[in-house]
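Field: COMPLEX_INPUT
Field: COMPONENT_COUNT = two
Field: RESIDUE_TOTAL = 670
Field: MODE = joint
Values follow.
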Amino acid sequence: MSNPVLVEVTRGNLVESRHRGAVVAVDGEGHTVFSLGDTDAVIFPRSACKAMQALPLVESGAADAYGFGAKALALACSSHSGEPEHVALAVEMLAAAERDVGALECGAHWSSDQKTLIAQARSLEAPSALHNNCSGKHAGFVCTCCHSGTEVSGYIGYDHPIQRQIRGVMADLTGAIFARDNCGVDGCSIPTYAVPLKALAHGFAKMATGFGLEPERARASKRLIDACMAEPFYVAGTKRACTRLMKTAPGRIFAKTGAEGVFCAAIPEKGIAIALKCEDGTTRAAEAMVAATLARFFADEPEIRAALMAQANHAMSNWNGMHVGDVRVTEAFAI
Amino acid sequence: MSNPVLVEVTRGNLVESRHRGAVVAVDGEGHTVFSLGDTDAVIFPRSACKAMQALPLVESGAADAYGFGAKALALACSSHSGEPEHVALAVEMLAAAERDVGALECGAHWSSDQKTLIAQARSLEAPSALHNNCSGKHAGFVCTCCHSGTEVSGYIGYDHPIQRQIRGVMADLTGAIFARDNCGVDGCSIPTYAVPLKALAHGFAKMATGFGLEPERARASKRLIDACMAEPFYVAGTKRACTRLMKTAPGRIFAKTGAEGVFCAAIPEKGIAIALKCEDGTTRAAEAMVAATLARFFADEPEIRAALMAQANHAMSNWNGMHVGDVRVTEAFAI
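Field: COMPLEX_OUTPUT
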């Protein structure tokens, strides 16, 4: 099936660009409570599933052994902007396991946030792996290996114990298959697996509700989701969508983006989770889609609903600050 | 009609993201020689029509009066990266009309090219309007006004003589309507008008061939197109698609991108021009589409064809330099 147009970008009185996509919200039992587009199609969750990938860090006892609080757990689930606080915390996490930047295998890149990039350009010769948006997740992998006495080197490889462990966790959560056939390599070099969009949402609904999970996994899941909601800055950064969405209803919304237009989210108290993919991989559209989908579940709280819809539908300005158009979700969301 | 998927982005063995769009190639008489998708739909050409907007600079005699060579004319048609050579030439153009950065009304922004942005961050407190990717076009407007004795201030406004003149030129070239109803405001604050994709292509085919144009307009059009092809660095910048495409067959291909996934191109010797719009506004897809479309017209020159197809279909690497997937045009181009 063809995915519907879910987001339009206007200029003057006309629509200039259109984004298609698929969105699904499910409960802990896996029942669909809202959907648009082809939710059975497989998508790469990319960084949107980092909270799932962080489960071994908690379940292994490494997080406790190294004294990690909510900030470190949030950073382990993050795609951060490389702001000084993010970088310092990644250093701290590695130091707890007596490691440093040399252990990280994620590669280096400048911040994708312009203000942070400018500050980095003025203070650094070049970025290191600590500045990589995935350095918190990778620090978590390193700590998990160190705690269990597993060789750290090569931890990004498909056959390394930590990646095998992650496959097991994600298969349990989503009920999907994790194997060579549906495996790609992520930006930070670890394996990423294409899964049905609905299965991804179900995995997050199980994390958010504990439904169908062993008690230890349910506890670890709650701890990670709670950590992200408690420390939203450490999940993304200044002015970033994940951080902003979680701040809209503190402690009540979990939200995590992934590259190529993916977003996962959950509202634990309502027992639901959301997964979505913008077909063309565009971030601005995925952000609008997740905000509009979350807003549906706050129909009885007009202030939160309005704050979320203001993130779904918003004005765009040009270099002189003139209003030139809008990003807005389409009538498809009116169902 | 629904636009077909024209570009796929893969990861591992799977397609991760898909881009739809419309493409048309026409000759000077306006006959379609190749098309995909809805080519009657209106699109905002944005910066892709800068060569049209530069016609008053040449036709008014301002370019000659100020001694502008191919580099300055190319910069007047450019969306440049704000590299030092671009900025210096914009200063020079303004100085020829005894003006400076203070005359520019385009607003300021840091370079969108990361390497240039890092250099700017290290040498500048903040960017000026000279660093705006449109500063060459705006310098051209300022010079046109100065030469004719028109008040410069307010030259970005819908009712200013230079914008009225541009509407007249573009209506003559495209046969489309240019009025308030189909007008939006561009990133650099001048009016931009939604026109049918095919009409835009026809306008460039007329510029590239002179077909149906008054002799003076035909000469000015040839001079601008030739200037861009002769000085492709000044149309965009280091590693940019427009520059690269024009360098693939020096003096034979004209190519100019616009924001939100637009590309216009021409092959004067073959008497055709191309216009395309990626429905979702993504640059990577528009670049693949224009390269694949240009390649069709070099079927009898395998080296050029291969060089263009290598720009249409190319590998993507991650932060560690590992091959993670590809950008590729779809079978839709096989017609």
